[in-house]
Amino acid sequence: MTRILGKLDALGGDRNGSMVIETAIVLPVLIMLCLGGFEVSRLVSRNNELQIAVAEAGSIVLASLPEEQSDIDKLEEIIETSTGLPPDKVTLAKKYRCNSDASLVVDITTCPTGAVISEFVEIEIADWYTPIWTDFGVGQTVNYDLTRRVQIS
Q1: Which of 7, 37, 42, 60 is most buried as measured by Cβ atoms within 10 A of its Cβ?
Q2: Cα–Cα nearest to 95, from 123, 122, 55
């Protein structure tokens, strides 16, 4: 019996392998923290890129002041080229405000006769980002929908 207790005492004092156990517990947490920080920075970076693209699109619209739909289509192509976004991500539409109404209308003929009409170009940029943690069943795809209205008259 004394021999068995002596061996148990020897095992209790043996510290070999304790670092492996500590690492096995801490390493997954550290990896998830690093991965989460990286993904969050990518999300914020993409949002910033799209905000800059919308601001650039607003500047382009103000510089050209489109009159007809063909001008708006041309502007849309210029914005897609300059921002590097695919054609289905950028949409430009001409809208109107009748007098001081809060809402905008697409058709100018819906405004009452004699109304003060303000013209706007509405820029919409839509994109998405799928973080890597969705592969593990956490979260979902993040959709970015940015809209800016530029008054042209």
Answers
A1: 60
A2: 122
pLDDT in tens, 84-118: 888 889 999 999 999 988 889 999 889 898 889 99
* Element housing 80 (H / E): helix 69-83
Give the domain ranges of the chain.
Answer: 1-151
Residues 1-58 pLDDT 10s: 667 666 656 655 556 677 888 888 999 999 889 988 999 999 999 999 899 989 988 9
The terminus-to-terminus CA distance of the chain in angstroms comes to 99
- Taking each helix axis from N to C terminus, what angle separates 69-83 and 18-64, rounded to the nearest 10 degrees? 150
Calpha distance 115→108 (Å, rounded): 10
In angstroms, rounded to a whole number, what is the distance separating the alpha carbons of residues 141 and 39? Answer: 12
